[in-house]
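Long-time lurker, first post. I've been practising inverse folding by hand and with some scripts of my own, and I keep getting stuck on stretches where the structure tokens seem ambiguous. Below is the full token string for one chain I'm working on. Before anyone asks, I'm not after the true native sequence, just a reasonable design that respects the backbone. If someone could post their per-position residues I'd love to compare against what I wrote down in my notebook.
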């Protein structure tokens, strides 16, 4: 017990000194020249007006696209012809639909676009409105792509902005052009609009007061969400470590340490019991340890990426090693936590630390040359604006992430919910995943800057330039078995980007799992999801590289959740069954501090 107190006390006093010393002046802590202060104040003002979007990045992208298009008369002619063809298709459809309401439409929405699924959109004139909108959206998709000379990032940003503007004025969003709203208003004599006004007032009040959205009160931490039994056995200034109680008489010999992303709270992996991965793993006989990150404040502004590696992952590994001595550790990392875990694995290989038995990551990128739709927020101009947003408080507020991810999927996360709540007057019924999504966290200034600059913009991890302890780490050093899980429709970590680890770690037996679903829903899907399918294949160390397209064609899809397949893989990488370890270790080396889910997850 004395040993545990000594370890925890020492961790609390940790000063979080970084491997890369940075001057306080770089973060605006000490006085600087007056001109620099003027510059920062001006950029901070711009950031507050634009919601964190850099006008320089937007202007540069628009100028790049428009100038190159202006110098491409052939491309202009192609777009003109395309516009005429689409107008002709719409007019032909308008003629056909007069006599055959069920005739083939001029175009179909994208598979994930549910705005026009209601049968009322097949009636005149709403069918023409929806078809005209979809054809217009298609034309702008063509217009913002394949213009020679435009950089890939500028092309992505221009396309993103065009779609954002178009989706904002979609006929679905406007009460006079949405047949569902008109029909509901007529049948309810305007009661839906009255409810919508009340909903708008309530949502605005909660937003201004900092309260969580309507419906989140139905999910109570420790009761019906994040409720798998366990104890917090360790705490330092950055993490709480939860050890979950065993659910079987005997357990897998190797413990399992989970590293969640710091951007959101850990309990996406411990949602309601039917969707809780932690509960599933415990019931399968695993001894699970979970990192719960502290929700940082201004005092944590100087905590960087290597601090999260050292005070977070490595100290958690130290505790697990002492609670379950003599056993190697299976490790799991989700999203940014997965990237951090691969950094830890590479560091341990470099230093001869052999405590890991396996490494699994969920939707984690290690090569950020093709980060997907999120690249619209990744450039030096954007980073400059974000720095000024963070500088005053010392962290990036959770609201920024909500806006950014909402913009990447504005139809599902912004416009459709607003129409349903404010125009149709529907109550908000949240599922556990939506409640978790609303419970966002802050991110320290230094951590977010280093994450965007070093990992994404400079791609230091993939290009062997990243340093830990003053020395480079190399992903190619990783030799323990690895399993990378990706999702088909991930807009945060596209599966082909996650797949790049095949090239980066040729010395590891790499199992790759691809499941349908998105960044979060594809992972937190439960063990018995009726609409899930997945592909799974192992590349042995030294095998020839297979491209993502060839891999997709060669590996057959299997119906059902990927959880059982991964659990089978985990058990094959583990040893015999043994008696469960004591909570907190033998003789309570780490005396339990309190019940799971702990105190850090409750910080607002």
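-- Answer (accepted) --
I ran through it position by position. Result:
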């Amino acid at each position: 017990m004395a040993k545990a107190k000594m370890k925890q006390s020492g961790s609390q006093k940790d000063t979080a000194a970084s491997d890369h010393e940075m001057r306080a002046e770089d973060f605006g802590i000490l006085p600087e020249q007056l001109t620099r202060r003027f510059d920062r104040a001006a950029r901070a003002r711009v950031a507050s007006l634009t919601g964190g979007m850099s006008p320089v990045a937007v202007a540069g992208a628009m100028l790049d696209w428009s100038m190159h298009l202006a110098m491409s008369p052939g491309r202009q002619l192609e777009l003109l012809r395309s516009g005429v063809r689409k107008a002709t298709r719409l007019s032909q459809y308008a003629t056909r639909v007069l006599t055959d309401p069920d005739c083939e439409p001029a175009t179909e929405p994208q598979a994930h676009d549910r705005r026009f699924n209601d049968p009322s959109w097949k009636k005149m004139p709403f069918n023409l409105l929806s078809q005209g909108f979809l054809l217009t959206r298609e034309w702008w998709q063509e217009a913002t792509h394949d213009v020679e000379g435009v950089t890939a990032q500028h092309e992505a940003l221009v396309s993103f902005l065009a779609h954002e503007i178009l989706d904002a004025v979609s006929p679905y969003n406007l009460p006079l052009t949405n047949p569902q709203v008109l029909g509901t208003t007529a049948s309810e004599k305007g009661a839906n609009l009255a409810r919508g006004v009340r909903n708008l007032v309530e949502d605005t009040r909660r937003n201004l007061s900092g309260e969580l959205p309507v419906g989140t009160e139905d999910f109570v931490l420790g009761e019906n969400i994040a409720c798998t039994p366990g104890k917090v056995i360790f705490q330092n200034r950055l993490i709480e470590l939860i050890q979950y109680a065993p659910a079987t008489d005997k357990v897998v010999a190797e413990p399992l340490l989970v590293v969640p992303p710091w951007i959101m709270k850990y309990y996406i992996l411990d949602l309601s019991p039917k969707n809780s991965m932690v509960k599933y793993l415990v019931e399968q006989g695993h001894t699970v340890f979970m990192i719960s990150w502290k929700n940082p404040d201004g005092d944590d502004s100087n905590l960087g990426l290597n601090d999260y590696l050292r005070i977070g992952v490595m100290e958690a590994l130290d505790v697990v090693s002492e609670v379950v001595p003599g056993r190697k550790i299976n490790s799991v990392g989700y999203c940014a936590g997965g990237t951090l875990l691969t950094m830890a694995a590479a560091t341990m290989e470099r230093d001869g630390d052999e405590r890991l038995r396996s490494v699994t990551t969920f939707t984690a990128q290690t090569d950020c040359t093709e980060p997907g739709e999120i690249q619209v927020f990744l450039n030096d101009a954007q980073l400059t604006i974000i720095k000024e947003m963070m500088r005053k408080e010392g962290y990036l507020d959770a609201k920024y992430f909500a806006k950014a991810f909402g913009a990447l999927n504005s139809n599902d996360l912004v416009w459709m919910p607003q129409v349903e709540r404010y125009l149709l007057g529907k109550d908000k019924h949240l599922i556990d995943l939506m409640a978790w999504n609303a419970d966002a966290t802050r991110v320290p200034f230094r951590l977010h800057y280093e994450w965007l600059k070093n990992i994404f913009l400079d791609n230091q991890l993939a290009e062997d330039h990243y340093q830990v302890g003053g020395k480079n780490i190399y992903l190619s050093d990783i030799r323990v078995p690895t399993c990378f899980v990706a999702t088909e429709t991930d807009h945060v970590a596209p599966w082909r980007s996650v797949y790049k680890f095949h090239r980066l770690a040729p010395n590891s037996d790499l199992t790759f799992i691809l499941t349908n679903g998105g960044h979060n829903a594809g992972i937190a899907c439960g063990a018995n999801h009726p609409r899930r399918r997945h592909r799974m294949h192992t590349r042995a160390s030294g095998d020839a590289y297979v491209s993502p397209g060839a891999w997709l064609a060669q590996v057959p899809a299997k119906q059902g959740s990927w959880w059982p397949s991964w659990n089978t893989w985990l058990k094959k990488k583990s040893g015999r069954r043994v008696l469960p370890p004591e909570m907190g270790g033998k003789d309570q080396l780490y005396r339990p501090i309190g019940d799971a889910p702990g105190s850090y997850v409750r910080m607002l």
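A couple of notes from the structure itself: The two ends are 31 Å apart (CA to CA). The first strand starts at residue 230 and ends at 235. Happy to go over any region you disagree with.
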